[in-house]
């Protein structure tokens, strides 16, 4: 239900963009020229890669492997994991990649403001900062959720299916945030 409401929230933000594009094509064309597409592409690739690391953490959690196992050992499910990493290590890597993404957004905002596009510049700037800013807030919420799941893994004596389920739920949210960004990235950086 909650992810459904998030879809509706972001649908509204997309509606702002498409309305702006259809009513002010000259403003759209002028402002999109300021965007650094190669930089945004690299930042997007970092976020997309974090979905893969998140899923590796989920696979480890499903095998009830919260932490790294020694080289050559098998986990409780009788499998060997990439690098022997457990959920915690994969989620820490996912957290780091997500934090790099958010930091990249902040750097991009600073560059755009320096180029004369603060949030108050015009309707395009407002729409850009609202959509990408709300997405960055959602990513930050996901980062907090990763820390809570990691903390829970350390707090319990025995990592069980209940803890694994928490990691799966957080991964659903993280994958959702990634998919939303991919669509935002295409709409914002490629529609000219």
From TrEMBL:
EC number: 7.1.1.9
Location in the cell: Cell membrane
Keywords for this protein: Cell membrane, Membrane, Oxidoreductase, Translocase, Transmembrane, Transmembrane helix
SUPFAM superfamilies in the record: Cytochrome c oxidase subunit III-like
Domain Heme-copper oxidase subunit III family profile: 1-192
Membrane spanning residue stretches: 39-61, 82-107, 127-151, 172-191
Keyword Secreted in annotation: no
Main localization, broad class: membrane
Membrane topology label: Multi-pass membrane protein
Family (UniProt): Belongs to the cytochrome c oxidase subunit 3 family.
Annotated catalysed reactions: 4 Fe(II)-[cytochrome c] + O2 + 8 H(+)(in) = 4 Fe(III)-[cytochrome c] + 2 H2O + 4 H(+)(out)
Position of the signal peptide: none
Any GO CC annotation of this UniProt entry: plasma membrane
Organism listed in the record: Microbacterium hydrocarbonoxydans
GO biological process, one term: aerobic electron transport chain
A molecular-function term among this protein's GO annotations: cytochrome-c oxidase activity
Organism ancestry: Bacteria, Bacillati, Actinomycetota, Actinomycetes, Micrococcales
Name the record gives this protein: cytochrome-c oxidase
């Amino acid at each position: 239900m909650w992810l459904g409401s998030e879809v509706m929230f972001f649908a509204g933000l997309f509606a702002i963009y498409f309305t702006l594009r259809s009513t002010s094509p000259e403003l759209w064309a002028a402002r999109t020229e300021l965007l650094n597409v190669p930089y945004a592409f690299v930042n997007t690739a970092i976020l997309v890669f974090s979905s893969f690391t998140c899923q590796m953490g989920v696979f480890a959690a499903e095998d009830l492997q919260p932490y790294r196992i020694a080289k050559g050992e098998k986990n409780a499910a009788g499998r060997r994991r990439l690098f022997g990493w457990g959920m915690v290590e994969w989620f820490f890597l996912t957290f780091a990649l997500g934090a790099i993404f958010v930091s990249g957004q902040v750097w991009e905002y600073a560059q755009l403001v320096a180029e004369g596009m603060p949030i108050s510049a015009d309707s395009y700037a407002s729409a850009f900062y609202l959509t990408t800013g709300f997405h960055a807030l959602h990513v930050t919420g996901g980062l907090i959720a990763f820390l809570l799941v990691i903390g829970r893994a350390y707090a319990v004596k025995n990592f069980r299916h209940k803890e694994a389920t928490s990691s799966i739920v957080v991964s659903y949210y993280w994958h959702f945030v990634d998919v939303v960004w991919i669509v935002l990235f295409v709409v914002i950086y490629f529609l000219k």
